[in-house]
Write the structure tokens for this entry.
Amino acid sequence: MTARRQDWKSDLRRLPVQVRPLPGELVFSYMHRLGRANRTGTGLLLDHLGEGTGWTISRQIHTYDLELNEHAFFRLSLLSGYYEDPLRRVLHVRRTRKGWPPAYTWHRFTSRDNDLVRPCSHCAARYNVQTLAMTKRPSVLPICLRHGRALAPHTEPRAVDQSLHPAPEILTAWRRFTILRRRRRNTVTTAFTTASEITNDWARAKTGSADHIAQRWRDRAALLPDVTGDVIRSPETIALTTLFARHPGLLRVPQLPSRGPTPMIFLAHAARYLDHPEPRRLLDQGSPLLHWAQGSELPAWWLPNTREPDRSIYTALRNNTIPTVL
Ligand SMILES: [Zn+2]
């Protein structure tokens, strides 16, 4: 144990330059910026926060975060010049365990930390962020709605955020989703999860050039070459989210086709919400929506197809029209 490692026993004062934390910023990212603004090393600041592992990963904020116990967090609040509670509300704090002495541990990012992003460059400019920073993404997808930008994931330290204005339908869908989240609080999370699974599977399905929805995604990706697939697919994901949030019974279609709404009713709704230009494509055997609606059951309804109103829906879709369903 060297003398330097006992720095956490000394009294602390606010650093001369105060640094405003970004919303959702990770603790290590914030400490790094605090050190840079005050022209001091992150390692030295860590020594003053508490006992740690003794090794410093001074620049790898895209790979590591810090976990502080409550006494170490208190010392960070002293250094930063912000009170503990507001600082805790703004930062993304992993854990603050009780116990003496003040201490920190490292958290290495894993594939489960896929919700970490570089902050939006326009937001960062407002906060006078000069160096690399890392934040929790502000919503279920990596988008800054305020500035209409797709955010870069933490795994790509050199990537930058991009304007989404070449595909305005993405931002329109996101504004709708914001309203939907307020109005359908109880169903929107499940609806979004299921809709995302469907569009993810759809993107992987290799449906060919006749698939209008996959073609939409290819066209959008050509306009926004570095934007992640989940953002590219988000207008269709949100269209299906809206459908499920308004008609939660449709979420049970793959499990209970004999008792609940039938796959045909789901397809009719989906054709309308996706504004599908050629609805009969949804009946193709390779159709990802049909595949989801059938679930793991054999499609017993498919060949006889005697149930009404399934027969009329089927006929309407075959004729490339979108049927009206209750
Ligand atoms: Zn922004």
Remarks:
- The radius of gyration is 25 Å.
- The first strand starts at residue 64 and ends at 68.
- The beta strands are 64-68, 104-108, 116-117, 135-136, 143-144, 149-150, 162-163.
